Amino acid sequence: MAAVWRQASPSTMASRRVPKMTSKEGTSQCQEKHAVLLSPVGKLEISGCETGVHEIKLPRLSVLPNGTEAAMRCELSGSVTSMPEPLQQCAAWLNAYFCEPSRTEQLPLPPFHHPMLQQDSFTKEVLWTLLREVKFGEAISYQQLAERAGNSRAARAVGGAMRSNPIPIIIPCHRVICSSGQIGNYGGGNVMKEWLLSHEKLQKEKLAD
User: Fold this and answer.
1) Are the beta carbons of 158 and 148 closer than 8 angstroms?
2) Does the pLDDT of residue 169 top 80, yes or no?
3) What's the start-to-end Cα distance of the chain, in Å?
């Protein structure tokens, strides 16, 4: 499936509700909870605690969902009331992403509670730069993201950061593509990446009409 994505540019930067980055203190008392969101691309496994979201695990798609298989709806497996608030916020944001993308900018992003996002590192800087600056329906190259994160020679390290991203979709590593325009690799599989990019392109076009 061929698609063209608008490159993110500094002029398109806008403020976002950036989630809290929690302290590592108290990690030993962290009680991890799990939730499963049934989405148009399959089961998304969310884990986290009262402090924040730990991880989102993606299914691996072997074929692109068609219009019938990928009805734009989400269903949360289990009781919402028993979930920590960060997991509820995460599920609500993902539901909006798939079903009502225009609402994602109004919803609060959940706080994150993963060591990779708490330690000072280039990986952390790359992921937070990506979250802040590359919007729905945009794309950025590995090289461009390296430059924005402060090291123009670190395109390969950016690729490593994308592979390590513990919060995919919310931290949108699927929007990072090759300078040639090829979509590049993705932790959830290239079919998943192609679907997410095409979904955003289509939804953005609908919102522009």
Assistant:
1) no
2) yes
3) 22
DSSP for residue 103: G
Per the CB < 8 A criterion, the answer to whether 32 and 54 are in contact is yes
Amino acid at 44: L
DSSP codes of every residue in 76-102: EES-STTS-HHHHHHHHHHHHHHH-GG
Closest by CA position to 6, among listed 171, 129, 175, 193:
175
| Amino acid residing at 113 | H
Name 38's bridge partners.
Answer: 43, 75
Angle, CA of 116, 114 and 72, to the nearest 5°: 110
Residue 13 and residue 58: Cα distance in Å, rounded? 28
Report the phi/psi class of residue 31: left, alpha or beta, with left for phi > 0 and alpha for psi in -120 to 50: beta
Whole-angstrom distance, CA of residue 101 vs CA of residue 94? 9
Please list the active-site residues.
173
pLDDT, tens digit, for every residue of 9-57? 544 433 345 565 554 444 456 899 999 999 999 999 999 999 999 999 9
| Model pLDDT, residue 20 | 56
Structure tokens at 147: 């430059």
> Is 61:195 a contact under the CB 8 Å cutoff?
yes
Determine the length of the chain: 209
pTM score, whole prediction: 0.84
Cα distance between residue 119 and residue 69, in whole Å: 40
β-partners of residue 55 are 47
